[in-house]
Write a structure and sequence with these properties.
Layout (H helix, E strand, L loop, with lengths): L11 E2 L2 H6 L13 H17 L8 H8 L8 H24 L1 H20 L4 H29 L3 H32 L4 H4 L1 H15 L3 E2 L8 H21 L13 H21 L9 H5 L1 H17 L1 H13 L4 H7 L1 H21 L2 H18 L8 H27 L8 H37 L6 H32 L12 H4 L11
Parallel strand pairs: 1-2
Length: 524
């Protein structure tokens, strides 16, 4: 039976046939007429993944009371999700490449909906932790599939820039939206709706994905890198868990870094990740081909994403604590206080997506990172009695605009020159960099904050309880200052490692790697 002549009805596989599928009879590149509808579906899915890492933060007190969760165990409501998400991302990206990105995308949505429902009806703490881990596992399938689908759906440089603008706005503003939504749902409904709200949205997105999203997969699926899958998953889980375990969970608790169990987890992570790279250099069909990492621009983007994660992600934690603990904001008021950050990201992403094809990534990334550092320095000037509109809001707007000019070119540059064969795993690496960076940054900066708070309290014992708000602010501001240093380091790496400019953004990918025969992937 002859195959359909409509390229949208046939899965795109990599290699020369993909180029044929994406080109018309006259040699002109074929453009998917449903690409913008596909982007809508991808955006809905990505928003759920991003905001679910933060949506439960403001619901923690209510969930603790309802399920009898102890202070020592409360972190698992967040950690169970991030641990599974960060640990399985790379494996999820390769599964998407092999099984089919659309198929894995839909499986991820349905699984995420089911896991969210289970979390929403959780009768015990252990049940909730397990549901959150299941959410993270399906998110690890969903996130790389979503990003790689943008890569294989949009072939025109300006359109791809707009698509990544949408993705970048969601990636940057999703956490703040999660805080706002979590505050509203907790205040007016129940903490359980912070999880239950995902179920109808995910099912709706899965239904839309069936007609609107085009299937694509890697051609060579004859061998599976089992050794690589086992070692990298074990290594990433151990790494994220080790840093999470090291993070202080009290005002004076900074000793976890030197505990034997923490060091053992981190040592195990190093061994597993080293073994993973040894395996990847020896097998014929690696889970993570070294060509993905060793390209200078892609490798630089992954490194920048990691360092930005270290410097920035903990900002939401500390600023949220400052607003609620020091300034006395309610959960819903704290959530609305983050709304300008989301607005700034969305507006900045629109501008960045227009500029990217014209100026290239570096002229956006460097000023964006430096603006983010300036905003963090401004937050480092906060006092225990600072005003939101005069001190917090200006810094928040500067950071949001700076990150909009960072996330979009980082995402696009990270996939520049990559073949459709590796689109899923390349997307997974950028997500993994951000997740691991967030875990490392939260642990490191939380240690900095706790140490500064403890030192202030020790030096001002005569002030009694009045010193606590000042001491906490001292810790938060010290963490903001250290975070700004990481953003400056990321700017320096951008200057030294990112070499592609606006001309390269308009070239076909095969001019970058020399191996790409699939529909062209452009930076812009």
């Amino acid at each position: 039976m002859p195959s359909s002549t409509d390229p949208r009805e046939n899965p795109v596989r990599d290699g020369s046939t993909a180029a044929d599928d994406a080109s018309g009879a006259d040699g002109q590149q074929w453009v998917d007429p449903l690409r913008w509808k596909a982007l809508l579906v991808i955006a809905i899915a990505q928003l759920m993944v991003v905001l679910d890492a933060s949506i439960v933060n403001l619901a923690l007190p209510s969930a603790k009371t309802a399920l009898g969760i102890s202070d020592a165990d409360q972190q698992w409501i967040v950690t169970a999700y991030t641990l599974a998400f960060g640990g399985f991302l790379l494996l999820g990206g390769r599964i998407a490449d092999y099984v089919g990105r659309k198929r894995v995308f839909i499986i991820g949505l349905i699984g995420f909906a089911a896991a969210s429902a289970l979390g929403g009806i959780a009768p015990t703490a252990a049940f909730l932790f397990g549901a959150r881990a299941l959410q993270g596992g399906f998110a690890a399938l969903l996130a790389p599939a979503a990003l790689s689908l943008i890569t294989v759906t949009f072939h025109v440089p300006k359109e791809r820039a707009r698509a990544f603008g949408v993705y970048g706005a969601i990636a940057g503003g999703g956490a703040a939206i999660g805080l706002l939504l979590g505050g509203v749902l907790t205040e007016y409904l129940s903490w359980r709706w912070c999880l239950l709200v995902n179920t109808p949205i995910a099912i709706f997105a899965a239904i839309l994905a069936i007609p609107f999203v085009r299937e694509s997969r890697a051609t060579d699926r004859s061998n599976y890198d089992i050794g690589g899958a086992v070692t990298v998953t074990a290594g990433l889980v151990a790494l994220v868990y080790g840093f999470t375990k090291a993070a202080p969970h009290g005002f004076t608790d900074v000793s976890h870094w030197t505990e034997g169990s923490t060091l053992a987890w981190l040592a195990f992570a190093v061994v597993m990740l080293v073994l993973f790279f040894v395996i990847e250099n020896r097998v014929s069909n690696p889970l993570l081909p070294m060509r993905v990492l060793l390209n200078r621009n892609r490798g630089g983007s992954y490194l920048v994403a990691l360092i930005v994660g270290i410097g920035l992600f903990a900002m939401f934690l500390f600023l949220g604590l400052y607003l609620q603990v020091v300034l006395g904001y309610s959960p819903i008021r704290a959530g609305f206080a983050f709304l300008p950050f989301s607005i700034g990201i969305i507006l900045g992403a629109g501008v960045a997506s227009q500029l990217l094809p014209r100026v290239g990534p570096k002229p956006l990334m460097v000023p964006g990172l430096l603006a983010g550092a300036v905003g963090m320095v401004l937050l480092a000037q906060l006092k225990s009695d600072s005003q939101y509109f005069s001190h917090v809001l200006p810094a928040m707007i500067i950071i949001s605009l700076g990150m909009a000019f960072t996330f979009i070119p980082v995402s696009t540059t990270a996939l520049h020159g990559i073949g459709h064969e590796d689109a899923g795993v390349g997307s997974a690496v950028i997500n993994t960099s951000q997740q691991v960076g967030g875990a490392v940054g939260t642990a490191l900066l939380n240690t900095v904050a706790v140490a500064a708070t403890t030192a202030y309290l020790s030096a001002n014992t005569d002030q009694g309880k009045a010193a606590l708000a000042v001491a906490l602010t001292e810790g938060y501001t010290r963490a903001f200052l250290v975070g700004s240093v990481f953003l400056v380091v990321a700017a320096i790496l951008t200057v030294t490692m990112i070499t592609i400019g606006k001309d390269a953004a308009k070239e076909d990918d095969d001019e970058d790697d020399g191996k790409i025969n699939a529909p062209a992937v452009h930076v812009g």
